[in-house]
UniProtKB/TrEMBL annotation:
Coiled coil: none annotated. This is Ribonuclease h protein. It comes from the Eukaryota. GO terms for molecular function: nucleic acid binding; RNA-DNA hybrid ribonuclease activity. It comes from Quercus suber. PANTHER family: OS05G0353850 PROTEIN, POLYNUCLEOTIDYL TRANSFERASE, RIBONUCLEASE H-LIKE SUPERFAMILY PROTEIN. InterPro entries: RNase_H-like (IPR053151), RNase_H-like_dom_plant (IPR044730), RNaseH-like_sf (IPR012337), RNaseH_domain (IPR002156), RNaseH_sf (IPR036397). Residues 1-127 form the RNase H type-1 domain.
């Protein structure tokens, strides 16, 4: 199984949400979720989304899970085992504990383009009227289109700005 999560704050700190999706090895939608978190920072929102996704995976009985996030700082904190006194150390601890409850896990960074489905769900979380919503199927045409594209092997290109001075050298 694969879990993609994302969190966002519309400002830092501002209204925040989290979201994610669990898919099987063929890319089929298993469950999605979105959460309105309240007013907080993007890093806290990222941790909330990861924790929600891990809890959902455990509830589903997932034994083998690849976790992908586009927040490299979260991936580095999870994988580093650093336990410094950070404002979000309790969320970090929760995520590590949940990861240990799943027998086989791997947490890795992906670019935003590879995390598009979770990115679309986080917008639902930021604007949700309910605190936490689980989706048994893609909740909108936009999310469905991303899931369908992923299932069919399509990818989304990453756009970068080239430095002409370096290219000319």
């Amino acid at each position: 199984y694969k879990l993609n999560t994302d969190g966002a704050s519309c400002g830092n700190p501002r209204r925040a949400g989290g979201g994610g999706v669990i898919r099987d090895s063929a890319g089929n939608w298993i469950r999605g979720f979105a959460r309105y978190i309240g007013y907080t920072t993007s890093i806290i929102a990222e941790f909330w989304a990861l924790r929600d996704g891990l809890q959902l995976a455990i509830q589903l009985g997932v034994q083998n899970l690849e976790v992908e996030l586009d927040a490299k700082v979260i991936v580095d904190l999870i994988n580093s085992r650093n336990s410094s006194n950070l404002a979000y150390s309790s969320l970090l601890f929760d995520c590590r504990l949940l990861l240990e409850m799943i027998p086989h896990t791997k947490v890795k960074h992906v670019f935003r383009e590879a995390n598009k489905c979770a990115d679309d769900l986080v917008r639902k979380g930021c604007h949700a009227h309910e605190e936490f919503v689980i989706f048994d199927s893609p909740p909108s045409d936009d999310v469905f289109a991303v899931v369908y594209a992923n299932e069919n092997g399509e990818s989304f290109c990453r756009q970068v700005v080239a430095n002409l001075a370096i290219l000319a050298a």
